[in-house]
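Reviewers of the previous submission asked for a worked example of the structure-prediction workflow described in the proposal, so we include one complete record here. The input consisted solely of the amino acid sequence. No template or homolog information was supplied to the procedure at any stage.
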Amino acid sequence: MGKSFQILSLDGGGIKGLFSAAILAFLEKDHDITITDHFDLIVGTSTGGIIALGLGKGLRPREIVSFFIEDGRKIFPPGFLSEGIQYVKHKFDPQNLEYALKDRFGETRLADSIKPLVIPAYNMGEDDIYLFKTPHHERLKRDWRVPMWKVAMATSAAPTYFPSFTQIDKIRLIDGGVWVNNPCMLGAIEAISFFNVPLDVIRVLSLGTTDPVKGRSLSLDKGGYWQWRKEGIDIILRGQSIGAYTQAQHLLGADKILRLDPKVPDGLFDLDQLSEEELFAKAAHESRRFSPLFKETFGRHIASEHILHYK
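From that input alone, the workflow returned the following structure tokens.
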């Protein structure tokens, strides 16, 4: 196992996943490395799940950056449906996302991943969490057969943006971000329970997709549905993200988890609309400052060989 067990945790955030992918691309270029060589486990939710699956397939971060830039506007076409439509119907056509994912992943199965992966979704039919896992433990007997593109569709089926994804055993799956948008604790728990590693060897790199600085309206204090209709989901996602990070700090120790999720002005980047140039520039700036710390904290560790248990 080596001296440490290192986890790469990737937040959800829609098209803002470009930021996370670009950070990884800059780190690879700075240090002339393959980023996956330095992590024993990758966990990712929604757009972070798509990045995790791409890395598991063997794509380099620069290729994933190209996916967001080339396919982002096809998946989230500007002005496709008005915001009001989201009160009664999902905003975007899921076929655009499906075509893009099939083009990148083909029929590559979860078992074909070069890295252990954990990708969360939510099962609406059973009202329960749902975790896709590579066969990195002898107990994991089923998910390995699922094509990566289907896992990506399930973890990124964000309510009001896309419909539920039902092409895996007819289960009604939606975005894992409804319960674990920041999956850093998910990774830590997997390391302890399925890889049997002690707490003191776990290290986590947690990548967000930028954190807008918001001032919460006073009308929320006594408001009802009308006041909470826009900010409610954002508050829930932010609250669970901060909670997961804080729990991981307490569990592992504050020096064992590094989080990169820079503050940005509110409204600069949205889940489904952004300026690719501005977000890429933000990633360039943040990675420039973070790069030496990455090398010192994560760059010296080489991950163990990935062992499959499905045969």
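The chain has a mean pLDDT of 89. We consider this example representative of the routine output the project will generate in years two and three.
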